[in-house]
Amino acid sequence: MVGHAFMGRAHSQAWRSVGPFFGPPLTPVMAALAGRDAVRAAAAARTLGWASSEGDWKQLLHRDDVQIVDICTPGDTHAEIAVAALDAGKHVLCEKPLANSSAEAEAMVAAAERARAKGVRSMVGFNYRRVPAVTLARDLVADGRIGTVRHVRAQYLQDWLTDPEAPFSWRLDRDRAGTGALGDIGAHIIDTAQFVTGHRLVGVSAVMDTFVPERPKPGGGTAAVTVDDAALFIGRTDGGALASFEATRMATGRKNALRIEVSGSSGALSFDLEAMNELWFYDGTEDAETAGFRRIVVTEPVHTYARQWWPPGHLLGYEHTFTHQAADLLTAIAGGTDPSPSFADGLRVQRVLDAVAASAASGAWADVEGSL
Amino acid sequence: MVGHAFMGRAHSQAWRSVGPFFGPPLTPVMAALAGRDAVRAAAAARTLGWASSEGDWKQLLHRDDVQIVDICTPGDTHAEIAVAALDAGKHVLCEKPLANSSAEAEAMVAAAERARAKGVRSMVGFNYRRVPAVTLARDLVADGRIGTVRHVRAQYLQDWLTDPEAPFSWRLDRDRAGTGALGDIGAHIIDTAQFVTGHRLVGVSAVMDTFVPERPKPGGGTAAVTVDDAALFIGRTDGGALASFEATRMATGRKNALRIEVSGSSGALSFDLEAMNELWFYDGTEDAETAGFRRIVVTEPVHTYARQWWPPGHLLGYEHTFTHQAADLLTAIAGGTDPSPSFADGLRVQRVLDAVAASAASGAWADVEGSL
Amino acid sequence: MVGHAFMGRAHSQAWRSVGPFFGPPLTPVMAALAGRDAVRAAAAARTLGWASSEGDWKQLLHRDDVQIVDICTPGDTHAEIAVAALDAGKHVLCEKPLANSSAEAEAMVAAAERARAKGVRSMVGFNYRRVPAVTLARDLVADGRIGTVRHVRAQYLQDWLTDPEAPFSWRLDRDRAGTGALGDIGAHIIDTAQFVTGHRLVGVSAVMDTFVPERPKPGGGTAAVTVDDAALFIGRTDGGALASFEATRMATGRKNALRIEVSGSSGALSFDLEAMNELWFYDGTEDAETAGFRRIVVTEPVHTYARQWWPPGHLLGYEHTFTHQAADLLTAIAGGTDPSPSFADGLRVQRVLDAVAASAASGAWADVEGSL
Amino acid sequence: MVGHAFMGRAHSQAWRSVGPFFGPPLTPVMAALAGRDAVRAAAAARTLGWASSEGDWKQLLHRDDVQIVDICTPGDTHAEIAVAALDAGKHVLCEKPLANSSAEAEAMVAAAERARAKGVRSMVGFNYRRVPAVTLARDLVADGRIGTVRHVRAQYLQDWLTDPEAPFSWRLDRDRAGTGALGDIGAHIIDTAQFVTGHRLVGVSAVMDTFVPERPKPGGGTAAVTVDDAALFIGRTDGGALASFEATRMATGRKNALRIEVSGSSGALSFDLEAMNELWFYDGTEDAETAGFRRIVVTEPVHTYARQWWPPGHLLGYEHTFTHQAADLLTAIAGGTDPSPSFADGLRVQRVLDAVAASAASGAWADVEGSL
C-alpha cells in the first residue's frame, strides 16, 4: 500500500477484515507500506499492521511478496504510481479521483489495457458503490423497479471549511488536488449517480466558487486557496434524464451528506450517507391508499455485502465499504475477471469533472467528451 | 354549543367549515352559544360566529332553533348537560372524556339509549379517530393488512407542566377534571388504541404520579395539584395483545405527541400526531429485499376525509378532525343511524380509566369492568 | 373574488376564518363571487359561502359593497383584471404568478403605483411566505442566526404528471399558464428563497424539459403539452450565494415537497412543505458536542401566525397560510400601509422566470433583468 | 476467548481492531479460541484469526499466554467459566446477561471481589454503553443538561420470531437462556437506562407472554418454547422517575430498535440503535422560538470513542462498540483500575430481571432486591 493517511487507515482496516468476514478466494497478506518518509512509514506500518515498510513506493514494484499495489496518495501522484505498477505486473487499486486531469487518466486507462492483456487487474476506489444501500439502489433501477429514470438530484454536503480559520492543506492546493470540492466529493456523486442509474452525463452547466480565498497554514502564515469550495451543476444524461449536482464544503451542519434521489416513471429512490444503512424506495405501482417512501434497513441476509456481517438491524459503518471493495477485487483477481469500477469508469468521471470546470469558466453549457 | 374555550373555538371552526367542504345532507346553522357568564358568552358568540348567546345552557333546551347540543365544557358538567339535552330531544355531541366517573357515564349511556328509541342521536368527541391517518390505520387493521395484533405501544406526550411555575387551572383540580393526564390525554390513546385495533383492554397494571404537587394560581397564591401529571400502564387485550400506555404532561420537548405503534403478525403501523398527515406502514409480506416502513402521506383522493380538502401533499391541521366529526354526525342524524363513537364507547374508555386508577392505587393488576 | 376553483376554495376558507382567529381591524364580508359562467358561479357562491355572484368579473368593479378584489383565475387573466380593479379603486389580492410575462407584470406594477397614490393597496399571493416555519426562517436569517448566506438549495417536487395518462388541462397550455412547473411551482421557490435569504437572484443557468409531450383531453382526443414538466437551474445571488433550484411535476412519490435549505457561514435552515409545521435549524455557534439540526415545531405562542390558532403541538394545515395572508392584507388596508409581497415583488419573480426560460433556450448563463 | 458464534465473531473483530485505532497501553494478542468441539473450534480459530484453539475452555486457564478470558457462550455457562477463570488469575470479560439467575450472578460477584484483591479485573459486556451516542447521553445527564430525570421510556424491538416457522434454538430454551426477550434484550435496556440516568429501578410491574408456544427444530420435529417472546414492564426509580420498558422479538418490521427516551425537568434525550450514530437532544433552556430536538451526529472529534475513527459524518457500525469495550478493558488492566460495567452492575440488572419475572408471575408490583 502507498500512503498512510486517512485513506491508508481505511484501506488497512479493509485488508485486515476481509478475510474473517468474506472468506475471499485469495487471502491478503499485509506485506508492505510505502511512504515518502521512511521513518514515518515505518511507524505507520506498525500502527496499521503492515509487516514491513518502504520509504519509496518504487521499491514495492521490485518485491515478489507484493502482488497488489493499493494507491492511497493525493491525486497528483496516482498516474505515475499506477502506470508503473501495472507495467511491473502488479494489480492496482487506485483511490479516486483517478487522476487530476483527463490526460493523466487516459494514460492510466492505456496502462490498464496493456496490463489486462497480461491478466493484471485494475480498479478505482469509488467505495460508495459498495454501500449496501447504494448497491441495492442500483439493483432496483436495473430491475426496472422505478421505470425510466427522469430525474437525479445529487448532493455531497460537508462543512469542514465553513470556518475561515480552518487551516490550509494539500486538498486546497490546485497543484496537488486538481480541484476542490468538485474532484474530492463531486467525483463521488457523479460516479454514484451514473452507477445507480446506468445513465451517463452528456452535458452540464456549472458554477463554482471559493468563498474563503486565503487560509492560515498550520506552520504559520497564510496560503491562497486555489481550488473551489463549492461546485454546482445541472446536466442531461444519455438516457434523457435531467440531473442536478452540488458538491460543497460549506454546507454548515452537514458533515458527510452524500444524498442522491432518483425519480423514475414508476418509482423513486432516496439515499443519504449520513444514514447509510437505509434506502428509501417509493413503488409507484402500489395502491394510492398505501403508497409511500419505504425506509429499507439494508441489513438483511438478502442484501449484498450486508449479509456477511451481522444479524438484521445491526448497522455497518463507513469503513465497511472498503472491505467490500477489497473482497470484490480479490474475487476478480482469483477469477481472472475485471473488477469494477474500472479505470475507464474513472476516466469517465474525470471527463465530467473537466466539463464542469469548463462550463463554470465559460458560463455556457459544456458537452462531456466521449459521452456521445 | 355550550362552552367557548379551547374546545369551543375548535368546534366553532368545524361547524363553519363542514358545509363548504363536506356538503353534508343537513346544513348546520350556528344558532346559539351558551356560557356561564352571559356577557362573556355574548362576546364569544360574536368572535366565534354564533348568531345568539345564552348565559345558561338550560335555555338551549327550550329553543326550537336548537337541534344539536354540542358540549365543550369541563368533564364535571358533561353528565348533567348531556342527560338533560337528550331527554329534551336534542341530539348531543359531547367532548371527551365522556364523564368524570363511570357512574356518570352509565347515566349518560342510559339517557342515550332512551333518546335513541326516539331517534335522537349522541356522539362522544374522540376527534382523533378522524385524523385521516388514524382512520386509515383502522382500515388497514380491519382489512387484515398487519395480521393478528400482538403489540400496542401508545404514548401521549405533552410538556406544558414541565415548568413548576406553570399556573394552576381547572385541569389540575380533581373535582373539575376527574383525573389529570390520565383522563385528558390518556383517554385519547385508550380510545385510539381500541379503535385502531378493534381490541378492548381487559386488564391493566398502572403507576401514576404528580411531580409538582403545588402550583401558583393565576390570581396569586398557590393551589394543590390534585390530579396526576403522568400515568403509565401496561395491559392485555381481549384479542391477546400486550399493550403499553403512557400519558404525561412532563415529556419535555414533546408538545402534542400522541404516538401509537401496532405490531401485528404480518405487519405494523406507526403514527405520531406531531406529524399527523403521515401513517407509517410495514407490510411483512413484502420481499425482505425491499420491505420497510412506508411513510404514507395521507392526503390522496382515496383517503377518507382528506379527499374533501386539497390536492395530494397539501396538509391538514388539528381542527380538521372536528370538521370530520361534524360531517359524520350530520350524516348520521340525516340518515337515521347512530354516529360513532357512541356514549357506550365513551363509557368503555371510562372503565379503563377507572381500572388504571385502581391499579395505581393498589399496586396490583386490575380488571377492566365489563370487558369480559 | 374572481374564480372558484382550487384557489377560490382556499381563499374562501381564509375569508371565513380570518375573523374568529385573527380579529382583524376590518371585518371581511364575503359579498360576491364572479366566474365566467353565471350558473356555475352562482352554485359555487352557495357552496363556498358568498352572498351573491356575478357572471362577469367586471360587474364587481361597479359594486359599492366590493372593496377588495381577490383574483383566483389562471395567469393569463391576471393583468387585465388587476389593472381594471386597481384603476376602479378596489384593493387587489392577486394569485401568483403575478402574470404570464414581465410585460404584463410591469403594467400591473404601474397600476399598483397609480393606485397606491390614492391609498388603494395591492398584494400578490405568495402564500408560502406565511407558513409560520417560513416566516421564522426569514426572521432567523434577518437576525443573523445563520451568518452570511452562502448556499440555497430549493426544490418544489410534485408527481401529478408522472402518469402519461394524466389528463391535459389549462395548466399544460402555454397560452393560459405561461409556463408549466416553472411558473406554477418554480415561482414559489424563487419567491421563498428570496424572501427567506433577503438576497435576489442576479443570474441563472437553466434546463427545462417536457417528458410527456402529448396527453389525453378529458373530453376525448389528445392535446400537445406546450409547457415544461420540469425546470432546473443554478444561480448566483446579489449577496454572493450559490443557489440551485428544481421545479418538477415528475418527482414520483413527492406530492407537494417544497423544500428549501439555506447554508450560512454560522448556521443553516431546512424546511419541507410536506412537514410544514417544522423548521430545522442548525446553530453553528453551539458546542461541537451538542450541535445538531433542531426540529422546531413551529406552533408556540412566540411564533408568528401560529399563536393565533391552537396550543403548542397542534398542527396547522395548508389553507391556514391564506388566512394569514388575508389577516395581513386587512391590517395593511386598515393601517394605510403597503402589504407585502407587493406587485413589484411579483415582477421580480417574473423576471427570474424570464431569465430561466431564456437560459434554457440558449444554453448559456442569463442575467436577471433589473437585478443589478 | 470461549465461544465462536455471533458474539465470538464480534469480539474477534474488536481484538483485531483495537490496536490500530485506539493504541491501547497493552497490545492484545489473539492467542487461543476455545469451543466445545475441537474440530469446529480449530476451524473457527482460522476464520476469526486466533493463533490456536482448544476443545475445552478449561485448557485456557492453564496457558501462560492467556491473560484475559473473554466469555462469549450462552448464559448457562457464564458462572462456571468466569469463576474458574478469575480464580485462576485471568482477567475476565463476560458477555451479558451476567448469568441466568441472581444466585449465579452473586457467586460471580464474589469471585470478582476475590480476584480484585489480587489485581485481577472483571467486566460484563453491556456493549451498548459504548455506542458514542449513548456515552454522550450519559454525559449530558450527568452534566445536568436535562435537569432531574422524570421519565424513561425504553424499548428493545426485534422481529425475528414474528414468523411462527422461525426455528427453535437455544435462545428459546429456558435451561440454556434463562429467559427470552427479557434477558437477551431486556437486559440491555435496563442497563442502558440505569447507565444513562444514573438511577436504579426499585420496583416494577410486568407482563410477559409467549405468542408462539411451539416451533420447528432445525433437524425436524418441534420443540416447546419455554421462554418469553415479549416482556413489558413499568417501574419506579430511586431518583423518583417513572419508567416503561418493552422487550420483544415480535415487533414486526423493527429489526434491532433499542430505543430510549429520557425526559428531564429541563431537557430530554432520545436514541434509537437503528440510527446509532445519532442522539436527539432537547434543551429546554433555549428560547421557545428555536427550541427543538437536535439531531446530533455523534462523530465529532469531541465525541468519546468516535474521535478515534474517522472524520465527522463518517458513521460507525455495530461492532465498533466491542472495540471500544476492549480498549477500555485494556486501559483499566494496564492502569490497575476496575473496568466498568462491573459484575456488580451485571448482578444489579439480574435482580431487575428477577423482579420482572416475579411480577409477571404474581400480577403485583415487585421490589427489586437490594435496591433500597
From TrEMBL, chains A, B, C, D:
<dbReference type="InterPro" id="IPR036291">
    <property type="entry name" value="NAD(P)-bd_dom_sf"/>
</dbReference>
<keyword id="KW-0560">Oxidoreductase</keyword>
<dbReference type="InterPro" id="IPR000683">
    <property type="entry name" value="Gfo/Idh/MocA-like_OxRdtase_N"/>
</dbReference>
<dbReference type="Pfam" id="PF01408">
    <property type="entry name" value="GFO_IDH_MocA"/>
</dbReference>
<dbReference type="GO" id="GO:0016491">
    <property type="term" value="F:oxidoreductase activity"/>
</dbReference>
<protein>
    <submittedName>
        <fullName>Gfo/Idh/MocA family oxidoreductase</fullName>
    </submittedName>
</protein>
<dbReference type="Pfam" id="PF22725">
    <property type="entry name" value="GFO_IDH_MocA_C3"/>
</dbReference>
<feature type="domain" description="GFO/IDH/MocA-like oxidoreductase">
    <location>
        <begin position="136"/>
        <end position="269"/>
    </location>
</feature>
<dbReference type="GO" id="GO:0000166">
    <property type="term" value="F:nucleotide binding"/>
</dbReference>
<dbReference type="InterPro" id="IPR055170">
    <property type="entry name" value="GFO_IDH_MocA-like_dom"/>
</dbReference>
<feature type="domain" description="Gfo/Idh/MocA-like oxidoreductase N-terminal">
    <location>
        <begin position="1"/>
        <end position="116"/>
    </location>
</feature>
<dbReference type="InterPro" id="IPR050463">
    <property type="entry name" value="Gfo/Idh/MocA_oxidrdct_glycsds"/>
</dbReference>
